[in-house]
Amino acid sequence: MMLCADMTKRLKHFDLELRFSCAPGQITAVVGPSGAGKTTMIRLLAGLERPDSGAITFGGQTWADPDSGVFVPARKRGLSLVFQEYTLFPHLNIRKNVAFAATDMDRVDALMDMFGIRHLAASKPAAISGGERQRAAFCQALAREPVLLLLDEPFSALDVATRRNLRARLKELKGELDIPILHVTHDLEEAVFLGDTVMAVENGQVAPDWLHRQCLLPQQ
Amino acid sequence: MKRIAPFLLVLALVLPSSALAADLLIAQAANFTSIMQDEIIPAFEKATGLTVQATYASTGKLYGQIVNDAPFDMLLAADESRPDKLYADGLAQKPFVYAQGQVVFWSLDTKLCAQGWKAALQDPAVKKIAIANTETAPYGTSAMKALQAAGIWDAVQPRLVFGQSISQVFQFASSGAADVGFIAYSSIFTEEGKKGCFVVVDEAPPVVQAGCILKKAPNPEAAARFAEFLASPEVQAMKLKYGYK
Amino acid sequence: MDWTPLLLSAKLAFWTMALIPVLAAPLACVLAFGRFRGKSVLDAIVTLPMVLPPTVLGFGLLVVMGPRGLAGAAWEDLTGGRLVFSFAGILIASLIFNLPFAVQPLRASFEKMDSRLLESAAILGLTPVATFFRIILPNCIGGLAAASILVFAHSLGEFGVILMVGGSIPGKTQVASIAIFEAVEAMRFNDAFLMSATLVPVSFAVLMIINKINARRP
């Protein structure tokens, strides 16, 4: 099912105005300078915030349309969101976390195997490493068979090796999941590696030439 | 600060006032407050030119303060036992009686008074009976004796609620929380008291209120003058007006 | 020595501690997470019992819980008994009096929760109510324990409000604090001392237990 987003929101320093769509089985990498509104965009798609105007639809179902007074809250959208830092529930062990919104326990175990955290099933989030927590967060997001996957800089806090590993996993799963995936990242290499499309957001607007401008900058 | 201000205000009003340069310091049992404050002290001050400072609290508290050397000149108690004890312990001069109170049966419900107090207590509509603490409050002791004399003390036990002071008993009865109460006759004359009906409890022995001048009094002559004043016909008239003898 | 007042105090403190989360948790939740006009008014109302002199609060409760008051009349219709001068009455008074002492620590621990956890719960499909019971409460045991300690200790010492609405009925509403006061008034200093001396180690023991429970949680 296709995600179509047309949203505006007044922010502190500028107005967010975005119009784009994402097809199932495709990863749309979202890049841009910090403070450009990328996280707000994710939050609007997730249903954690309301747009001022426009419409967000998914597979024909309207998720948000302020002019018609429609707003489907986050919990009813059936999507998954992975934040930059683990948001696992501290009082539950890893397995219970992963299985939190899942119905198929075999899928839970399979995912944990795939991401290499099966052996941590009984541990609590506080007892494992940051990389392991992020893997668990991914498993939790995927275990519930989401209709849409939103990723807000999911690998930023990880070491290079883990980052490469998880990147590869994600690319592998893309076809199998067959859902639209939005991946916000500040790592341009990652964006190009993962993204079937790369969308740059600058000052709340889609900036088609932003990526090109980055290439003209001296290499870090 | 805004939140604390009203609290501080009430605190200041409740704390016993400190002894400023008054000519006479009296420890007064609380039940006698209004007559003392509004009539007797102003009259005495006018007649003698002396200034009087009174502290109003329960007799028990005042007694406790006195045995711990609180600087009062005299104690005007709600009973005889505390002045007697001070005298026996050598802390005070011989006690004298300054007023007599009477226990009355009171209720907001006039139908109950009409039956007479003994019959009213049998009425099933009377679910809670307010009485002062029988151990520490003389009005409570007196009411208890009346109930015992009438042979119904045991029967009313389950329905009794105890006020710490006679004024709390009146509060229970006048708010309707208790259906009836054994209160001081003097309460009848108050605005709240007039809203209900009363029956004098003849079987209740009069509540004899005694006072004594303390041996350690800083102003014994002023105290003696006040004691004399309390026995005067002028004060006698005030007492009758307020429901005392 | 008569143990009844001490047992009654313990009973009152225990039931207050057991029931107060039911009242305090939703209020703390609304104050911590809610965003609505009049929130500061609600905050002030909840804090009021802490600031009002006990006698003022007690008198207000006496009127409301008395047979002619709103709560008292309803109670009599339901149960046929009187609300004032009953254990139920002093328990209700105790709950109201202790409310701010439970709401404050609970609210603080709710506010310390990472909002992303709550957002995560929402995205994963939990309703606000389910989030409260499955995510917020289990992660705020520290706040709950702190609230329990405060409330238990506070209830043991309660005097003014209980005095006003209780009627000091032996076995029903004559709690230890009132019994000690009466003993002092009646010059039974030995009794007063014995009761006071028992309250201290009992309170101490309870606080130690609750602190131990609190320490074991992460």
UniProtKB/TrEMBL annotation, chain A:
Keyword Nucleotide-binding applies: yes
SMART domains on file: AAA
Single GO molecular function: ATP binding
SUPFAM superfamilies assigned to the protein according to its UniProt record, in alphabetical order: P-loop containing nucleoside triphosphate hydrolases
Record field: transmembrane: none
UniProt KW keywords: ATP-binding, Nucleotide-binding, Transport
PROSITE patterns: ABC_TRANSPORTER_1, ABC_TRANSPORTER_2
Name of the molecule in the record: ABC transporter related protein
Alphabetized Gene3D superfamilies for the sequence: P-loop containing nucleotide triphosphate hydrolases
ABC transporter domain boundaries: 2-220
Automatic annotation (TrEMBL), chain B:
UniProt keyword Signal, yes or no: yes
UniProt GO BP: molybdate ion transport
InterPro entries according to UniProt: AvModA-like_subst-bd, ModA, ModA/WtpA
Binding residues annotated for molybdate, in chain numbering: T59, I166
Keywords of this entry: Metal-binding, Molybdenum, Signal
Molecular-function annotations in GO: metal ion binding; molybdate ion binding; tungstate binding
Signal sequence segment: 1-21
Family statement: Belongs to the bacterial solute-binding protein ModA family.
Record text on subunit structure and interactions: The complex is composed of two ATP-binding proteins (ModC), two transmembrane proteins (ModB) and a solute-binding protein (ModA).
Record-given protein name: Molybdenum ABC transporter, periplasmic molybdate-binding protein
UniProtKB/TrEMBL annotation, chain C:
SUPFAM superfamilies in alphabetical order: MetI-like (SSF161098)
Domain ABC transmembrane type-1 positions: 6-210
Membrane-protein topology: Multi-pass membrane protein
CDD domains per record: TM_PBP2
Transmembrane segments: 12-34, 41-63, 83-103, 123-153, 192-210
InterPro entries found in the cross-reference section: MetI-like, MetI-like_sf, ModB_ABC
Localisation per UniProt entry: Cell membrane
Single GO MF descriptor: molybdate ion transmembrane transporter activity
Superkingdom to which the source organism belongs: Bacteria
Keyword Cell cycle part of the UniProt annotation: no
This protein's GO CC annotations: plasma membrane
UniProtKB keywords: Cell membrane, Membrane, Molybdenum, Transmembrane, Transmembrane helix, Transport
Major site of localization recorded for this protein: membrane
A Pfam family: BPD_transp_1
NCBIfam families linked to this entry: modB_ABC (TIGR02141)
Function field: Part of the binding-protein-dependent transport system for molybdenum; probably responsible for the translocation of the substrate across the membrane.
Family according to the record: Belongs to the binding-protein-dependent transport system permease family. CysTW subfamily.
This protein's name: Molybdenum transport system permease
Native source species: Pseudodesulfovibrio aespoeensis (strain ATCC 700646 / DSM 10631 / Aspo-2) (Desulfovibrio aespoeensis)
